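dumping this here so i dont lose it
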């Protein structure tokens, strides 16, 4: 069972922010922003690439509710989902990073000249 499935099952503790029958939002253990929350489907789906459109559609109001609940809707936030090897996905269970709580640096993911990266 993957680490996020264990969080869903309560086998690994997490700092939950919002939950419904299909999705769970909890604080990232190693935050990359003042607020860094992960949103996952309770069902194991490897990544966005394997997700069905209904799941992605249903995540939308869940994330909007989450961001309203914690006040991120006022000044904005960023959503990121890493996919596979090149995307830098470490946990192979679909998750959307919700980042906010301050002005976020943009293009921080570029380690060098983008024209030389690929
Ligand atoms: P990825 O690199 O796969 O897009 O992101 C995985 C994220 O999961 C990372 O930001 C990492 O800090 C977070 N993470 C990994 N293990 C745990 C854990 O056991 N609990 C929590 N809350 N976050 C975790
Ligand atoms: Zn899983």
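and the seq i came up w/
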């Amino acid at each position: 069972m993957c680490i996020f499935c264990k969080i869903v099952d309560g086998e690994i503790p997490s700092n939950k922010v919002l939950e419904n029958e299909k999705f769970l939002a909890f604080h990232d253990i190693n935050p990359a922003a003042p607020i860094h929350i992960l949103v996952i489907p309770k069902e194991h789906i490897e990544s966005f690439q394997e997700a069905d459109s209904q799941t992605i559609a249903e995540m939308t109001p869940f994330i909007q509710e989450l961001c309203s609940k914690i006040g991120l809707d006022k000044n904005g936030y960023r959503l990121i989902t890493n996919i596979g090897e090149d995307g830098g996905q470490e946990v192979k269970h679909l998750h959307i990073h919700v980042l906010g709580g301050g002005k976020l640096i943009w293009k921080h993911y570029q380690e060098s000249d983008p024209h030389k990266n690929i």
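The helical segments are 3-9, 53-69, 72-75, 84-87, 114-117.
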